[in-house]
Amino acid sequence: MTMNERHPHLMKIIIVPLLFVAAAVAASADEGMWLYNQPPRDLLQERYQFNPTDAWLEHLQKSCIRVNSGGSASFVSKDGLLITNHHVGARKLEELSTKDRDYVRDGFCAHTLAEEIQCLNLELDVLESIEDVTARVNAAVPKEADPRAAFEARRKVIAAIEKESLDQTGLRSDVVTLWQGGAYHLYRYKRYTDVRLVFAPGAQAAFYGGDPDNFEFPRYDLDICLFRAYENGAPAKIAHYLRFSPGGPRDGELVFVSGHPGRTSRLLTVAELENVRDRSVPFQLNSLKRREVLLENWSARSGENARRAKGMLFRAKNGRKAMDGRLAGLLAPDLFPAKAKAEADFKARLSATPEFSEALAAYDKVADATKTLAAQSVRGALLEGGQGFECESSGIARTLLRAGEERPKPNGERLREFSDSRRASLELDLFSEAPIYTDLEKLTLADSLTFLATELGVNDPLVQKVLAGKSPRDRAAELIDGTRVRDVAFRKKLYAGGADAVSAANDPVIELARLVDPEARALRKVSEAQTEAKAQAHAAIARARNALLGLTGYPDATGTLRLSFGVVKGYEENGAAVPAFTSLGGLYARASEMKNQPPFDLPAAWEKRKSRLNLGTPFNFVSTCDIIGGNSGSPVVNRAGEFVGIIFDGNLQGLTWDYAFSDKQGRATSVDSAAILEALNKVYDARELAHELVNGQRNR
Amino acid sequence: MTMNERHPHLMKIIIVPLLFVAAAVAASADEGMWLYNQPPRDLLQERYQFNPTDAWLEHLQKSCIRVNSGGSASFVSKDGLLITNHHVGARKLEELSTKDRDYVRDGFCAHTLAEEIQCLNLELDVLESIEDVTARVNAAVPKEADPRAAFEARRKVIAAIEKESLDQTGLRSDVVTLWQGGAYHLYRYKRYTDVRLVFAPGAQAAFYGGDPDNFEFPRYDLDICLFRAYENGAPAKIAHYLRFSPGGPRDGELVFVSGHPGRTSRLLTVAELENVRDRSVPFQLNSLKRREVLLENWSARSGENARRAKGMLFRAKNGRKAMDGRLAGLLAPDLFPAKAKAEADFKARLSATPEFSEALAAYDKVADATKTLAAQSVRGALLEGGQGFECESSGIARTLLRAGEERPKPNGERLREFSDSRRASLELDLFSEAPIYTDLEKLTLADSLTFLATELGVNDPLVQKVLAGKSPRDRAAELIDGTRVRDVAFRKKLYAGGADAVSAANDPVIELARLVDPEARALRKVSEAQTEAKAQAHAAIARARNALLGLTGYPDATGTLRLSFGVVKGYEENGAAVPAFTSLGGLYARASEMKNQPPFDLPAAWEKRKSRLNLGTPFNFVSTCDIIGGNSGSPVVNRAGEFVGIIFDGNLQGLTWDYAFSDKQGRATSVDSAAILEALNKVYDARELAHELVNGQRNR
C-alpha cells in the first residue's frame, strides 16, 4: 500500500464531517483512527477490559515517527534505530543508488555505525504535544465574512499560531484541521534530519509476489527498512522507543496500530461521495494507468531505465490497484444506499426542528461547492495540481518562482507551504541532492504535455502558449535540456536572490511555470474559498449533530498521529478460511507453486539460507486494526506496548476503508516481529542489529 | 503492427474525400495505395521506367490473400502453401494451443502433410475480379431522399448486387465504398476455409525485442507463419503464386507491396480530423491503456493466465503504441496548419464560382454530421461498439439475438453483416470451436462493466438495468457462469431455431444483449444516417474537385487489395544514418547489447544454431512503400514479381501515415526472403519447406 506519496501540488479532495455516520459504525466494530488526546478509553474498557494509562499512551505516541515524505515508523532502540517499511524507505534507497550500485534491488546492511549511509533529505517528525486552538482560530474569523475573506482570516491566524509556537519551542508546529473544520489542534514535532540507512532487504524479499500479490493475503513479504536518527553526528539518544517482542502476537490477541493514516473520506455527504465516484476516482485511475503503461514500457527498454523508473512505477501500480479497489467499493450495491439512507434519516430529524434549518440548508451549500469544484477539477489537477507538467524540474521551478513572490509577503498572507513554520522542511526538500534523470524527465513531461493538450484541447490559449508551436515531445526536450534547476547551487542562488534573481535567470522551465501561474493561482483561490464554504456548512451540520447526538467518534484521517485497535484474526473468502498467519515456510511453498517465476521467484539469499531457518516462524499476519494509506510502517504493539509487528499493507477487501470500515473481510497486513529477527539473524547475518532490537540498545 | 484486428461491432470513423490533398502529396513521393483497376502506370513509367503488364498485375493480384480475420498473405507454392506474419497467424495458434501445448510460445513445424493442423475457423479470400457498380448504386437512391431513406435505399441495392453476384458466380461478393461514397466497386473473392498450420517460429523469434522494439528499426524479427490452403481434403492447386527470391531485394531497388491496408484517414476535412485528434484517438488510447494494465497484471499472476491473455495483450500494446504515435503526429505543429491551408485554398476556389456553392456548403454539412456523431460517440462505442461488454460471450450472444431478428427480413433490409452474401463467413465465425476461457471472460467483462458505469454514470437507467443491483464484478461472474453460449451446439440450435428459440433459451448474456439492443440499434441508425449525410456532402465536394482538377490519385484504404510501390532505402535519425538492412548477425549483437534480458533474450533455437548460420544474411529491411495496418503479411515483390520479403511493421515515423504520407523518415519494415530461407534451413531444420519455397512446389 502506498501512502508514502507526497503530492504537494495536488488539489486535495475535500472531506466533510458527517459525524453521526462514524459514530454509528464505530459501535459495531473495532473501527476508528483515534486522536491521542481523545483516546477510545470507554470502548477499550468495555470490549477488552483494557485501560491504557497516560504513561502508556505518551510512551507509544513519542515512540512513533512521521516520515515527512509520507509513511510511518517507530523507534526500536535507545540508540536511534528506527524501523519502517521497505516501500517507505525505497525512495531514499533510490536516491542513494547509481547505475552500478542498486540498493533497491540488492538491499544494504551496515554492520558498524561507520558503514551507515546518510540519506540525502529525509525528515522524521516525532509528535511532542497537542494543543486545542479551536477557540482562537474561530475567534479570528469574522462571522459575516464571505468564504474568501474567511479563508484569508483563518490562514492568517493559523500562520501566526504556528510561528509563535516555533519561536517559543523551536519545534515544528502545524495547526491541523480536524472534523473538516470542526476543530483546530496545534501539533508540535521534534524533527530529525540526519538520518542514516542501516538495513534494507532486496526488493524481491521486501515485495515478494509483486503487483499480483499486492493487497492480497496470504503474503510472504519482509517489507522492512531500518534507519538510524543522528544528532550532532552521533546516534540520537531516544527516551521513548518500543521494546521489541521476539515472539510476535498470538492469534486473537488485542493489538494497536499507531501511525499516520493519510486521508479517509468516510464523512462525505452523498453529493460529495458521488463526485468522488463519478469524477475524482475515474480521473485518477485514468492518470495512473496512463503512467503505468508509460513507465512499464520505458522500463522494458533497458535495465538502467527500469532502475531509474522503479519507484515511480511501483507507486503508479500500487496506486492503480488501490484505486481500482476503491472504485469497486464505490460501485458495490450496498455502499451508496446505506450512505443515502443515513443522510436522509438525519435530514428528517433536522427538518423536524426549526433551529436546525441552517444545518439542513448546509447540505445544499456543500452540494453547490462540490459542483463548483468539480467544474474546475480537471483544469485544477493539470495546472495547479501539476499533472500537466509531471517532472522534478517543473516542481522545483514552481517552488523557486513562488518562493520569490511569497517570501516578501507577511507570514499570514503567504501560500501555506511558504509559511515560516514550514520553511525548514521546504528548504530541506528544495535543496536535496537527489539525482534527477533527464531522460526520465523528458519522458514524463512529454507525456503529461500530451495529456494537457488532449484534456484542455490543443486550441486552448494557455496550451498553445505552453507548447510554443512545438510538439509535446520536442517541447519537453527543449525545456529539460535548457533548464538549470537540476543544479542545487543554482536553486540556492535563485532562492536567496528572490524574485529578481528568478526573473534574471530566464530559465525555460521557470518561465513555463510563470506562464501557467496566474491561472493556477486563480484555480487555487476558488478551491480555497469553496473549501472554506464547505467547512462552514459542515460546521453547521456538526453543531446540529452535537446537539442531537453528543460528540463522539474520531475525525477523518489527516496525516497525523492516530491510534487504532483490533485483534489478530483471519477471515473467510470464497467459503474458505484464510488463517491470520503465514510462516516462513509458506514463502518456499508459494515460490514452488508459482514455479519460481517472477515476481514469485525466491530471493537468492533466502534460497541459499533455507536450511538454517525455522520454517515455522510466523511471517506475515492480519488484524482488524483500522488503517489506510500512510499507515505503512506503523508499529503494531500489544497491551504491554511491545513491538509485535509492522503494518505494510491491507487486503483488497480493506481498500474500501477509505469510505467505510468493515471487518467482515477487510484486514490490515503486517510483518511479524519474529520473522524480522529470524531473517536478520539467519538470512542477512545482521546479528548485531537483531541484538540491538532485542536489547533495545547497541552492543557495547 | 496490427491490422489483423477485426472489430465488427465498432462504429467506424467516417472518412471524407478531399481528393486534391492526396493528389498534391502523391506528386512528391512514392505515396499511394492504388486500386488494381486504376494502377499508377504513369507514375511508374515516369519515375522508374516500369510499365506493369496486365498479366503482371493479374498474377500479383491473384497471388495475394486477404486473411478475413484481419491481415494479408500470399501464395508461394502451387501446392497451396502461403505465408503471412506470425502476428497475423497468432490468433489461430492461440486457438490450437492448450495449457500443455503452447504453439504461440514454442512454435510449430509440420514436416509432412499429415502433420499439418487444421485451423478452427480461418477464411482466406482471393480477389478474382473488380466491377464498377457506381451507376447502379446511385441510380437506386432517390435524389430528394433524406439521409436515412437514402441510406436504406443504398443498403438495399448493395445487398441485391451482392446476392445476385453470389448466386451467379458462387464467389464471395462485397460492394466496396470507395472515395467515401464517390464510387462503388463490386469485389468478388474465391474463399478458402480449410486452412492448415504448417510452420510458425516461437514468439520470441517472431517478435524479438517485444514492445520496446515494436515500431522501431533496426529490427531482427522472423515475423512469419506458413499455412496451406486445402480443397476437398487435399492441398489446393494454385495457378497464381509468387516465385520466391532466395536473394531478397537490393538497396535502392524498386519494390511493390500488394496487400489489404485497413483504413486511412488522409482525406478528412479539418473538422473531422479535429474530432479524431480531440475525441476518437484519446478515447481509444484510454481504452487501450486500461486494457493493457488489466491484462498485464492478470498475466503476471500465472503462466497459464499469461498464455490465455497473450494475444489480447499483444493487440492492446500494439494498438496503444500505434495510437500514441498517431496522436503525436496529430499534435505535431506542421500537420494541422498544412491541412487547414489546403482546405482554405480549395474553399477559396469554390467560392469564386457560383456553380460550386453546393460543394462549399458541403463542408458545413460534414462538420454538422461530425458534431452529431461526436455527441453520441462514447455511448455508441460502449453500447453498439460493444466496449461496455468486452468478452467473447457478449459478441456471440448479440449475434444470436440479432440473427433471430434479422434473418426473417428481406435481404436488402437487414443489418449488413446478416446479408446473404456474408452468411457463410458469419457462420464460420459464429460456430468456431475456438476455446473461450471463463476466467478471462469474467475479467474483461467486469472491467468493461466498470468502464460503462463510470462513463455513462451509475445512475443512468440503462446502466442500472445492466448491473441489476450488483457490482460489476459480481454481475460479470453471474453472467459468465450462467450463459451457455460457449457451447457451439447451443449456438447452432439457437441460430437454426430463430427468434423464438433465442427467447426460449432465456440465456443471461443473450438477455443482457436484448436489454441493450434497442438503444444500440438507435445509435447505429443515427450513425448510418449521418454517415450517409457526410457521403452526400463529400460527393458534392468530389464533383467540384473533379471539375476543377480532374480525377487522379487513390482512395483512402478500405481493407481491400491495394498496390503500393517504393524503394528499399534507409533514412536518417538524430543525425545518424539508419541503413536499410539488418543482418542475422545483428540479432546476436542486439541480444548481447541488451545483456540477453527479456524481451531481448535470444530464442533458444537461435542460440544453439548460431554457428551454422551465415550471419551476413539480410534479416529485416525498410522501404518507402506506403502501408498501414492491415498490410501485415503483405508480400514485397520486385519488378519480376518475385517474393523478396514480407511486410510486418512500420517505423514510429510512419505511424502518422494514417493522416498523411511522408517518406522523409517514415518506412515500411519487412522480413527479407533470404532470412526466411536461412532460418528454415538452418535454425528450424525445415528443409522440405525451404525447398518448396524455392521450387514453388512440394518435393515429389
Explained architecture:
- Two copies of one chain form a homodimer.
- Chain A has 700 residues and is an alpha+beta fold.
- Chain A is built from 25 helices and 21 strands.
- In chain A, the strands form three sheets. In chain A, strands 2, 3, 4, 5, 6, 7, 8, 9, 10, 11 and 12 form an eleven-stranded antiparallel sheet that branches. In chain A, strands 1-14-13-19-20-21-18-17 form an eight-stranded antiparallel sheet.
- In chain A, helix 14 (377-384) crosses helix 21 (508-549).
- The radius of gyration of chain A is 25 Å and the shape is globular.
- The first copy, chain A, starts with 18 loop residues before the first helix and ends in a 5-residue tail after the last helix.
- In chain A, 54% of the residues are buried.
- At the A-B interface, helix 9, helix 10, helix 11 and helix 17 of A face helix 9, helix 10, helix 11 and helix 17 of B.
The gist of it:
The structure is a homodimer of 700-residue chains. Chain A has 700 residues and is α+β, with helices and mostly antiparallel strands.
Question: What does the secondary structure layout of this molecule look like, with pairings?
Answer:
Two copies of one chain form a homodimer.
Chain A lengths: L18 H8 L7 E2 L5 H8 L5 H10 E4 L4 E4 L5 E4 L1 H11 L6 H4 L1 E2 L7 E2 L5 E9 L1 H6 L7 H23 L2 E7 L4 E10 L1 E7 L2 H4 L3 H4 L11 E7 L2 E2 L18 E6 L10 H30 L3 H29 L3 H17 L5 H19 L1 H8 L7 H15 L16 H8 L7 H19 L4 H7 L4 H11 L5 H18 L2 H42 L12 E6 L3 E3 L2 E3 L2 E3 H10 L10 H5 L9 E6 L11 E3 L5 E8 L17 E5 H11 L3 H9 L5
Antiparallel strand pairs in A: 1-14, 2-3, 2-7, 3-4, 4-11, 5-10, 6-10, 7-9, 8-9, 10-11, 11-12, 13-14, 13-19, 15-16, 17-18, 18-21, 19-20, 20-21
